[in-house]
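Assess this:
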Amino acid sequence: MILTIGNTKGGVGKTTLAVQLAIARALAGRDVWLIDGDRQGTATAAIAARAEAERQPGIACAQYPDGPTLRGQVQQQRGKFDDIIIDAGGRDSTALRAALVLSDVLLVPFAPRSYDVWALDDMAALVDEARSVRDGLRAFAVLNLADAGEHSADNAEAAAAVADVPQFEYLPTPIRRRKAFSNAGGAGLAVAELAPRDPKACGELDALFSAVFNIQITA
């Protein structure tokens, strides 16, 4: 699977999810390539911290913030990996556009804030553009940095807003704002590797992992 985690809106936690899913997939025995399509290089830094700590399994990671380079490298090397996870976005970029055309699945994290929900319309336009070039792109939205309360009105309103953007399917596997995710990500760890272990964070990540990697993709 080629999975892009992206959004034209910054600050939605896309890099955190990309790193978490890449490591979790590697821990499940898959050969994973994480591509950092953001000039800030946060995902690259996280994986470098993992390598310096000699944590296993190691994660292959490369930074390609330029669309043509990203496209060319994925086309040349996609056969070497079971899964490719691309961290792209924070703005409308050539890397994000290239990733959408290459991907089987797009995961768009958004926070329960008005500006984040409105940004889904920008991503919807990019999804339409990518689908005009390549059939088969599945696009999903997931609530990230959600309020911790199980019955938060803001969470519920944000999730309901996805229904107004037909390009996306909503994944009912929210990731809540938990310190474990930031602590783990900064060290290049999956939340399951962090000590002490946060069972709620692990459960949320496991639910998202299962939802994403059980998506049926069209060849």
